[in-house]
């Protein structure tokens, strides 16, 4: 019986395990090796350089700036997403007529890709010329047009990138909050009303929000991890025929141009960067596990 | 109070739908209308000829990229469901001495999102000679530790009585899985399948890295190339975007129930 179970186990798990080994474990292991070599345009390098690649990455202000860019992005996007998606969830959850319609409308952008959203934001809404939609609206109030994506002082491109991501992901997190709201036992509210609490702000503060704690923590962390991996909208909104501007490079954009960009393929530095970024996110994930299971 | 709520929701809904409207509006407008000094909400006429022109334009490989995206998304969805569900079932239900160790090896991969390791994965895939190749686009994305983990959690709560009844009828693990467990889990498969399809269709970084020849571009890569570098008619670009999201909007509207379930399963339990 045990032998046949062993065979059955590997029949089920084996194909997946081989794939996981080949496309997750081997790449990471190989990458760790490559990160100690000078590996320009080769994946089988011979020139051992020790920790030089790591030293270069940590000494590269562009790498550190990319972490700064991520932090700035996260400071805007994480709280805004949490508050706005909760607001949408509360509104949708309270109505009865047309509830499904509104939920679908807010959730619909989930079906859209970041590339398509970038197209609309860059060429239609935040087009820097006078006929762009945002500039047309500004024109109604007599304001001058703004070069949204090319403007670093003030950095208007943040408005473009943050609103884009909000549009795309609010519905997703709203659905999570709605699920959380529907798990709150109804009798908690009834007990509060009997005790004299008024529906509205009081029950929201003393029942709804505390009951949503787990959902809120999940939303914040998912969002943070997603922001860490931001690539698509930065690349597509800010990239032009002349290349990518030197500012606003989040970690993955930085890594993309370092390891695979126009300067040739530099797998030594690219791997060192990947290892550093992976360690950072793994540390965050472990910390989040501690927070959630607490 | 009720009126205020509906007013707020309606205003928000306009903002959420506006981008979709702009895609269609710009896609069916003339180039002159898009760049006109005075912005108009409604173009004078909808130029449906744009659709024929888009598919006839040899400079824009829209048809080829749509085919690529479809093949990649279908294969990736089917493959991910197959490999990850089998693994999840084995881990949940088949007693094996080292099952825990294997499980920890799967869970360990959840700490590092796949996007962060695109350089290492590219190194391996290019060594295999899969650059600009369907295999390179599809295969690395099949083995999601997260999906396998979700399947394991799901199968652990699968009613044991059903499996035991199948066992008494003389079915082994394999027979039980295909004849009893899978047919009774279609809702869960659909939920994760819709998410997998959506994610695969919309993914950008990996196809950008691996699909280097024009023939292997997915639709996201094709759109991005024209958006960031090559000049193209703006209305064609918007129309191509409209065509690219059409299948997903259909999937979304028809299978929204499963999508909502998938989002809650992957979001909360992750």
Automatic annotation (TrEMBL), chain A:
Record-annotated ABC transmembrane type-1 domain positions: 67-288
Protein name per Swiss-Prot or TrEMBL: Sugar ABC transporter permease
Keywords: Cell membrane, Membrane, Transmembrane, Transmembrane helix, Transport
Species in which this protein is naturally found: Umezawaea endophytica
PROSITE patterns associated with the record: ABC_TM1
Position of the signal peptide: none
GO annotation terms (biological process): transmembrane transport
Membrane topology: Multi-pass membrane protein
Subcellular location: Cell membrane
Automatic annotation (TrEMBL), chain B:
CDD domains: TM_PBP2
GO biological process, one term: transmembrane transport
Main localization (coarse): membrane
Signal sequence region: none
Compartment(s) of residence: Cell membrane
Membrane topology (UniProt): Multi-pass membrane protein
InterPro entries, per database record: MetI-like, MetI-like_sf
Name by which UniProt lists this protein: Carbohydrate ABC transporter permease
Native source organism of the sequence: Umezawaea endophytica
